[in-house]
Design brief:
alpha/beta; FAD/NAD(P)-binding domain; 3 domains; 6-stranded mixed beta sheet; 10 helices
């Protein structure tokens, strides 16, 4: 089976499915590829959402404990891990299933399977039903990240977990060591501490949550010191981990280490994440992967492959008019714009915003912070075989001097373009003047003033 689309998105996490939905909302045909049964990615399946569901349970337990001071005693809680897992999984299923429905509503083709890049415009996807081929004009790489692994901490033991394994809640250990004082480790440590584990966290820097505002961290640190009864070990690193009777024997190194060796029933290694840039077949493209595993892009997130074909054209012209909420460039300008799009093969066209633009003219396009609005190329010229691309038009009030998200690759003046009659000019005229698709160009007044009056009847 082969799917031919405008855009194929590889990876259905919050970055991937948001890109797919946005492209579909703009009228493009879209294929979304992921191994999971529904969109969601690591965030919804093995990250943010299950973590927040369990943190909610931890907060309820904490509030019940504090309620004793108010004269309300619920007694010692009883933890049913099976039902707790069902609660967490139900939240995940509901949200990912909802995203699956949103994809169907937007007519996004969802392909469940593992993808391989065949070339810069083609994906091969291995699915349960067989191999599927996805051909696209553009491919968006949104493959997310995975837990970082360090050889010295990679002990092949069921007692050593990463964040994904910790979220499974297979059991609640009596003692748990968290390696890494980042937000992922602290969130999961909070959950396990609330469920009854004696939690210890070790961080090689001099504070928890490196890189976060220290005033905020100081408040959290005081709370963590009370919750993590095993201790908070700063300026300390894990030297070795070996499996021992009843747990994992861990050796610590650091100036402030009091006990150089301790045994923990389980260990959670949470020292960061790294990009999933080892995509099969990526070497068949011009995409460049940096030393740290990140795919190198420009300011518009275009890779070296896309940069060669995605072109942004800037047009300097003020010959635009708005009437009854419709954007109407004059006929001569439309001819020149059409020629530029066809010959330059533009993906995005930028121009000035008309002086009499008013935010109430919402049906012209999508208003972006009242600074620009967008319309698609059929407003200027029907999609004919003569125009193989459908660029997006962006109009800015301050020309191209003010920085904006789209920087033109080339800026031309419409007055400098020599006008030539194009094959699709008749289609242009029948699109914008009376008579519709059957309108005759011969009946259209050639005088600009007469054209203006005819438009506004």
């Amino acid at each position: 089976m082969t799917h031919t689309v405008h855009v194929a998105v590889l990876g259905a996490g919050p970055g991937g499915y948001a890109a797919a939905f946005a492209a579909a909302d703009l009228g493009m045909s879209v294929a979304l590829v992921d191994e999971a049964p529904n969109p969601g990615g690591v965030c919804l399946y093995r990250g943010c959402i299950p973590s927040k569901a369990l943190l909610h349970v931890a907060r309820v337990l904490d509030e019940a404990q504090h309620a004793k001071a108010w004269g309300v005693d619920f007694g010692a809680p009883t933890i049913d891990l099976g039902r707790l897992r069902e609660f967490k999984n139900s939240i995940v299923a509901k949200l990912t299933g909802g995203l699956g429905q949103l994809a169907k509503q937007r007519k996004v083709t969802y392909v469940q399977g593992r993808a391989t890049i065949v070339d810069a415009r083609t994906l091969g996807v291995a699915t349960k039903e067989g191999d599927v081929r996805v051909e696209a004009e553009h491919i968006v790489l949104a493959t997310g990240s995975r837990p970082t692994q360090v050889p010295s901490l990679s002990l092949a033991s069921p007692r050593v977990m990463d964040s994904s394994g910790a979220l499974e809640l297979a059991a609640i250990p009596k003692t748990l060591l968290i390696v890494g004082g980042g937000y992922i480790g602290l969130e999961l440590g909070t959950v396990y501490a609330a469920l009854g584990a004696q939690v210890t966290v070790v961080e090689m820097t001099d504070g928890l949550l490196p890189g976060v505002d220290r005033d905020l961290v100081s408040l959290l640190a005081r709370r963590i010191e009370k919750q993590f009864t095993g201790g908070v070990l700063l300026n300390t690193r894990v030297a070795t981990m070996v499996e021992a009777k009843g747990g994992v024997r861990v050796t610590f190194e650091g100036a402030d280490v009091k006990a150089a060796e301790r045994v923990f029933e389980q260990v959670l290694v949470s020292i960061g994440r790294r990009p999933n840039s080892n995509i099969p077949g990526l070497e068949r493209t011009k995409v460049v992967v940096g030393e740290k595993g990140f795919i190198e892009t420009d300011g518009q997130r275009r890779t070296a492959e896309v940069k060669k074909c995605a072109k942004i054209l800037g047009i300097e012209t003020e010959v635009l008019d708005i009437h009854d909420g419709e954007l109407i460039p004059d006929l001569e300008t439309r001819r020149k714009i059409t020629r530029l799009i066809r010959e330059w093969k533009a993906d995005v066209v930028m121009s000035h915003r008309p002086n009499d633009y008013h935010p109430d003219h919402r049906n012209v396009g999508v208003v972006v912070e009242d600074a620009a609005y967008m319309v698609t190329v059929p407003f200027f010229c029907p999609d004919t075989p003569h125009l193989t691309r459908n660029p997006v038009f962006l109009f800015y009030p301050d020309g191209f001097q003010k920085p904006n998200p789209f920087q033109a690759d080339i800026v031309v003046s419409i007055d400098d373009v020599i006008d030539k009659k194009l094959d699709c000019v008749d289609a242009l005229e029948s699109q914008f003047y009376e008579g519709g698709a059957n309108g005759s160009a011969a009946n259209i007044p050639k005088d600009p003033a007469a054209q203006q009056a005819r438009r506004r009847r």
